[in-house]
Design a protein that fits this description.
76% helix
Length: 76
């Protein structure tokens, strides 16, 4: 699934000509979820995994771009 995520993210970044756009990461996560659903022969699993992994990847990218911190040492 990691290879599928990476490939889909890079291909969407090249096709859309926006390499740092968080939507590319959503597309990669959603593609990974779709393949997970295909592997389990379940459309509901694929749909849920698409939305879940896509959203997780999207917010991970946005968080890195904006410097969000969840855990770590406090800023002094």
């Amino acid at each position: 699934m990691g290879a599928i995520f990476g490939m889909a993210t890079c291909l969407s970044a090249q096709a859309r000509e926006t390499p740092e756009d968080p939507l590319n990461y959503f597309i990669g996560g959603c593609t990974s979820g779709i393949f997970l659903g295909a592997r389990t022969h379940s459309a509901m699993t694929g749909t849920s995994a698409c939305l879940g992994l896509g959203t997780l990847a999207f917010f991970t990218k946005v968080g890195k771009m904006e410097g969000w911190r969840i855990v770590g040492p406090p800023k002094l």
